[in-house]
Specification:
The protein has 100 residues and is an alpha+beta fold. It contains three helices and three strands, in the order αββαβα. The protein has a three-stranded mixed β-sheet with strand order 1-2-3, with helices on one face. Helix 2 links the parallel strand 2 and strand 3. The model has no long low-confidence stretch (mean pLDDT 90).
């Protein structure tokens, strides 16, 4: 699993309002993996490495429900990847909220 694989998985996550994927919309500011040394089996030889995903993205809007829906969508998508044990999402304010 690489950072590029993580970004590729995020192509399956869509902005709930615009119905376009968050990578194409450039909402993803960073998507990185860190080895999870606390993961079950992390100290057992032969068990594949497990990672914590760290995602920083711009919130799609000031709508808290839409933002919560997007966060849940990302967490659910990454939970389906065997190498990912945890997901941390940091949200930046929506672009339009900054301009107001």
């Amino acid at each position: 699993m690489t950072d590029a694989d993580l970004l590729e998985a995020l192509h399956d996550c869509y902005d709930p309002v615009l119905k376009r994927n968050i990578v194409e919309l450039k909402l993803v500011r960073s998507a990185t993996l860190r080895q999870d040394l606390q993961a079950p089996g992390a100290t057992i030889p032969g068990i594949g490495m497990r990672y914590t995903a760290h995602i920083t993205l711009t919130a799609p809007s000031a709508d808290e429900a839409a933002t919560a829906q997007l966060q849940a969508q990302i967490e659910n998508r990454l939970a389906g990847l065997p190498a990912i044990t945890r997901t941390h999402i940091s949200l930046l304010p929506p672009v339009f909220a900054i301009l107001q």
